[in-house]
Amino acid sequence: MTLDKLVPSAAEAVADIPAGSSLAVGGFGLAGIPWFLIEALLEQGAGDLEVVSNNCGVDGAGLGLLLEGRRISRVIASYVGENKEFARQYLSGELTVELTPQGTLAERLRAGGSGIGAFYTPTGVGTLVAEGGLPWRYDAEGNVVEESPAKEVRTFDGKEMVLEEGIVADYALIRAAKVDRAGNCVFHAAARNFNVPVAMSGRITVVEAEQVVEIGEIGPDEVHLPGIFVQRVVELTPEQAERKDIEQRTTRPRPSQPSQES
Asked: pTM above the 0.90 mark?
């Protein structure tokens, strides 16, 4: 593989993703999501996708666009509360949903990328996560037609733990603040979130970069994600790099400042 992983466009970077692929996607809410790779995939047309992500975007943005386009058939996620279309598809039997505790999801992705097939965790012991019975899919009448299976539980040092499987995705899409041509990534603040374990889990990982620099310009101690986990880099334009929406903006008036005389 060439050391220079830069590709000309987002469209070219996702052109070979076929229908039925499993797809891990970085971001938390709308922070750090690969906006333009998602939009390129929507335009590309692949469907029947199994998506692994902390959440599934919001209505009209991020992975919500793929949902609205009926491109996603199954989701593994930990939070879905900001997307009404997601809830509608799930409850009407159009979408299979595997809800997973947030920390467990992050570790499943990291484990898959590290070659670890499964691991034990205390999270979920004594709940439907371990015992089975979580509704994965409904029919059009609201009946549960697929539910989570029971998982193996063992005791370590007197503490019960449940077995969780690692996740390896066919493709992973992430966003980074600064990337060199070899794929070494630096993330900004909260955008680091799920991007690192998502990138690790992908057999082919594509990163959209706000800034691309030459190899050697990122110091070894600055690297958040080594380039060994990245196969393709897409450089955003300055205008694209500025796109950093949030789900909700809540403000309040600043308290009035006391005058010098008071």
From this structure: yes
